């Protein structure tokens, strides 16, 4: 049952939603270089259309290898995270990412009230990507 494709997609979508909401907390709580590298690898995978699923699983494993018993997947289950954009519409959440693929700046789309977020390096508007 849990392995239905839509179930997997939903799990991944929820894990990503949690990740982008808490990325700085997650990074702060990770002690090992390899774990923080997994955070950056996931940001890169999302930004560069890489293997996001594998990057989420890698980070989840690193979180659990450190003292986080829940990991990324367990945390979304535990909180029953329901974020805007996930659910009835069938569309994933959206996040703003660097248009040049240079910096790792990102901005959760729901957080942006007025101005569009911009690149750290040249101030160009970030591009909106639906996950
Ligand atoms: Zn940038």
**How many DSSP-defined strands?**
3
SSE order: HHHHEEE
Q: Distance between termini?
A: 23 Å
Distinct small molecules: zinc ion
Report Rg.
Answer: 15 Å
| Biggest sheet layout | 3 strands, antiparallel
Number of spatially distinct domains: 1
* Molecular shape: globular
- Unreliable residue stretches: 78-90
How does the helix and strand content classify structurally? mainly alpha
Provide a count of the helices: 4
The percentage helix is: 40-55%
**Chain-averaged pLDDT:** 80
Strand content: 5-15%
Task: Label this structure with key terms.
single chain, 131 residues, mainly alpha, three-stranded antiparallel sheet, 3 strands, 8% strand, binds zinc ion
Please give a structural write-up.
The chain has helices at about 5-30, 35-45, 50-65, 70-80; strands at about 95, 105-110, 125-130. The longest helix has 25 residues, at about 5-30. Strands 2-1-3 form a 3-stranded antiparallel sheet, covered by helices on one side. A hairpin with an 8-residue loop joins β1 and β2. About 50% of the residues lie in helices and about 10% in strands. It has one domain. α1 (about 5-30) packs across α4 and α2 runs antiparallel to α3 (about 50-65). The protein is globular. By secondary structure, the protein is mainly α. Residues about 80-90 have low confidence and may be disordered. The protein is built from 4 helices and 3 strands. Zinc ion binds next to loops. Zinc ion (ZN) binds near residues 98, 102 and 121.
